[in-house]
Amino acid sequence: MIIRTATQRADLLEAGRRLGAVLEALETYVAPGMSVEELDTLAEKLIRDGGDEPAFLGYTPGGANRAYPATLCVSVNEEVVHGIPTENPRTLLAGDIVSLDLGLTHNGIIVDSAITVAVGKTDENSEKLMRATKAALYTGIAAARVGGRVGDISHAIEQSLAKTGFSVVEILGGHAVGDAVHEEPFIPNVGHKGTGEELEEGLVLALEPIANAGRSAVVLAPDGYTFLTKDGKRSAHFEHTILIEKGGTTIVTRRPSEKF
Ligand code: MG
Ligand code: MG
Fold it and tell me: Which of 11, 29, 58, 122 has its CA 20 to 30 A from that of 5?
């Protein structure tokens, strides 16, 4: 969406503040023995307690043959994105890494954000993978400016990950957001500076680098949603909704304790 009024802007920022708070609260429940289904139940409760609606529950993305059946996407280890916590019951184990991807609707405005966190203590390479993916998100955000192009963001994310030895998942990426979960333009995580659609004043985007510890190839599970790494190695995912304005770019879904 494009933010055109002060009311829309205030609603967007409030939506993001709420989502950031819910995601940070969910993070505190990530521990060995926690089930992914419990995380979904909690996510839905926290959103509804705040008077808002889950944005993913019942949403059918382009290309899908059924609506998404949960509030939260929970993707563990080799699961890349869109793991369905209500259909793939799984208990988190110490050393796992888990991506929590969540959308909510506040006053009609949709925001989208994801974090990947360790369950207890994980191995050094997984820590590196998560740090690199998060750094790529911030690098992408820093490349977003009014008058720039989609390719500036894509290039920044690609370059940030290129020097790490991890691979970028090319078929998945960011998107505009606000009126719907997924809006045009698509924001690839690889690309060339100065190419693609121009970034206009008030544009709301969800940027979401996804990186794999091994090869970049992913496969879609029979459930039609869960992407998995083809080589079975781990994957990480970070996402923020941002607002691009002449005065600068705002991280809409910033979490309360997040420093950037
Ligand atoms: Mg998301
Ligand atoms: Mg998204």
Answer: 58
